[in-house]
Specification:
238 residues; 26% strand; four-stranded antiparallel β-sheet; 6 helices; Alpha-Beta Plaits; Structural Genomics Hypothetical 15.5 Kd Protein In mrcA-pckA Intergenic Region, Chain A; 15 strands
Length: 238
């Protein structure tokens, strides 16, 4: 087997087509073709240098130098490459390689804070996959401070309204006047933080992500601003 051989989902993620889950959707839609063969399995092996690999008719090649950026996401924009109804975080990027980047994970439209953007699919997969237990810390503004027993339920992991159960979380009180507490989780279910507090009868009024793994939100970045990650920061996250 060639040393350039890899799974098609890994290849396309590394080529900035999207996350591995995005790639699986493209395969399901029958949009991925390798050497004129329709791909139906994400584990299909390709030669990264020799094969003719196309997505929706467009030839896909690997970029040799991945890019890594951190943004202080502002409220009012959605975390997506494109959206027909709303402005996205990509609209706040004003760099030549904007089209090569995609968001790592997702923050709700009304949520602010630390958001990573990259062209490295493996990097994104590691940070978002629940099996890697990468910590994400949020500052949370609530309508009222929960009781100690209610916070304990969240810390131990609780059942959401859809029947799914959350992993244990860490909670500390916030010293910032706009936020009630900080919560640290290691997964990323849909609207998870809001749903966790909703399960104990509390409403999230403000939400801001302040940390991913060892990376803290850069206090010098105003909302909507971004910068390239340092080599040291990328290594810490990897």
């Amino acid at each position: 087997m060639s040393e350039n051989s890899m799974r098609i989902d890994k290849f396309l993620a590394n080529a900035n087509v999207g996350s591995r889950s995005d790639v699986k959707k493209l395969i399901k839609k029958k949009l991925v073709i390798v050497n004129e063969t329709l791909v139906s399995d994400a584990s299909y092996k390709v030669d990264a240098l020799k094969d003719d690999i196309r997505v929706n008719g467009e030839v896909i090649t690997l970029r040799t130098s991945p890019s890594y950026y951190v943004m202080n996401k502002r409220s009012g924009v959605v975390t997506a490459k494109k959206d027909h109804l709303h402005k996205t975080v990509m609209d706040d990027l004003h760099i030549d390689i904007r089209e090569q980047l995609f968001p790592v994970g997702r923050l709700d439209k009304d949520t602010e804070g630390l958001l990573l953007l990259t062209s490295d699919g493996d990097f994104a997969h590691r940070l978002t996959s629940p099996k890697h237990d990468v910590e994400k810390e949020y500052a949370v503004g609530l309508d009222a401070l929960p009781l100690e027993g209610e916070l304990l339920r969240i810390e131990e992991g609780l059942e959401l309204k859809d029947g799914s159960r959350t992993k244990p979380a860490k909670i500390t009180l916030s010293e910032h006047p706009d936020y009630t507490l900080h919560i640290t989780i290691t997964e990323g279910k849909y609207h998870q933080v809001k749903r966790m507090f909703g399960a104990i009868g509390r409403k999230v009024e403000r939400l801001k992500r302040v940390r991913i793994g060892a990376l803290q939100l850069d206090e010098h970045l105003a909302t909507g601003e971004y910068r390239e990650l340092t080599t040291e920061e990328v290594e810490q996250l990897q």
